[in-house]
Amino acid sequence: MYSSKITGLGYYVPENVVTNDDLTQWMETSDEWIQERTGIKERRWIDPKTEDTTAVMGAKAARIAIERAGLTKDDIDFIIFATLSPDMYFPGGGVQIQDMLDMPTIGALDVRNQCSGFIYSLSVADQFIKTGMYKNILVIGAENHSGGLEKSTRGRGVTVIFGDGAGAAVLSRTEEKGKGILSSHLHSEGKHAKELALIGPSTNRWVPEIIEANDPEDASYFPHMNGQFVFKHAVVRFSEAIIEGLTANGLQKDDIDMLIPHQANLRIAQFIQKKFELSNDKVYNNIMRYGNTTAASIIIALTEAWEEGKIKEDDLVVLAAFGSGFTWGSVVIRW
Ligand code: ACO
């Protein structure tokens, strides 16, 4: 049986930096409030005057990952694209990437698992490679949150947290024993779907009463989050996902060389770090600079950690995520 390993990584974030102080032009908030509760100092938001969109950013990250894998676009067998903020309601963004990169008519699959989107995508790609169906799969996570956030005091509890960006990985077949993705673990609990959700622009739009009430000021057209509820579930599920990944491979917490948690909130990441007694060099966080980029967060952080030389050959790398759905999971990698 084959295994899969990451052979190329890339990311792209828009140039436009929005600091916490910048946000005060739209809403009542403060740098102190945001940093204390989330750790975020600044985020990147697309400048609408630029060409950037979710798919455009995804394509930019993808080009870098393909090149670093030593491949060309024609070597890619399949695309998996994770986003909650596609450019169009349909079709999905994967086909846009296929077109933007001028790729052959390979399959393109969109994954809608929000903050866990990259974990789910990586797991799906791993299965395709293990069965021998595909050799090289492009896995992308990208988000344009800024286009859909409520830039007013009413929306501040959500708006200050999210940033735009994209990351991509090429997952390739390997016959090296004990290397690459060792296991992946996926979960969901849909009864909490509305605790972190965007209700408005859905199939509900065709319901007459909703057309009637189609008010752009309607809060249901912006993301809603029950912050404290999400926090409490996140710390439990993140921990479970990491333990599950370690246990499945007969590993202990001391075996972790690098933990890349979804960049939900620095306080959540710090809680997990403390629980697993990991030193600072074993957890990578960049939420301070980019905010929460949902499906892009893990892959941007993984790419940065790798670029900075913090991930070395044979390291045990654990990726873990929790998010809207609720969905959560982990991927355990021997680098
Ligand atoms: N600036 C200033 N004040 C604010 C802001 C803001 N941006 N947002 C909310 N407030 C106010 C509220 O209106 C409220 O005021 P009140 O007491 O007068 O009513 C007060 O601050 C406290 O609001 P809470 O929502 O209770 O604030 P809390 O301390 O819970 O912090 C936060 C909010 C940061 C969202 C917290 O609940 C949290 O960390 N939750 C985890 C959820 C998370 O991390 N989500 C990330 C995305 S989901 C994911 O990726 C998994």
From TrEMBL:
Annotated EC: 2.3.1.180
Every Beta-ketoacyl-[acyl-carrier-protein] synthase III N-terminal domain range: 109-190
Catalytic activity: malonyl-[ACP] + acetyl-CoA + H(+) = 3-oxobutanoyl-[ACP] + CO2 + CoA
Gene Ontology biological process terms, A to Z: fatty acid biosynthetic process; secondary metabolite biosynthetic process
Domain of life: Bacteria
Any Pfam family the entry gives: ACP_syn_III
Classification via InterPro entries: ACP_syn_III_C, ACP_syn_III_N, FabH, Thiolase-like
Active-site residues annotated for this sequence: C115, H262, N292
One of the record's GO molecular function terms: beta-ketoacyl-acyl-carrier-protein synthase III activity
Protein family (similarity comment): Belongs to the thiolase-like superfamily. FabH family.
Purpose of the protein: Catalyzes the condensation reaction of fatty acid synthesis by the addition to an acyl acceptor of two carbons from malonyl-ACP. Catalyzes the first condensation reaction which initiates fatty acid synthesis and may therefore play a role in governing the total rate of fatty acid production. Possesses both acetoacetyl-ACP synthase and acetyl transacylase activities. Its substrate specificity determines the biosynthesis of branched-chain and/or straight-chain of fatty acids.
Protein known as: Beta-ketoacyl-[acyl-carrier-protein] synthase III
Lineage, highest ranks first: Bacteria, Pseudomonadati, Bacteroidota, Flavobacteriia, Flavobacteriales
Gene this protein is translated from: fabH2
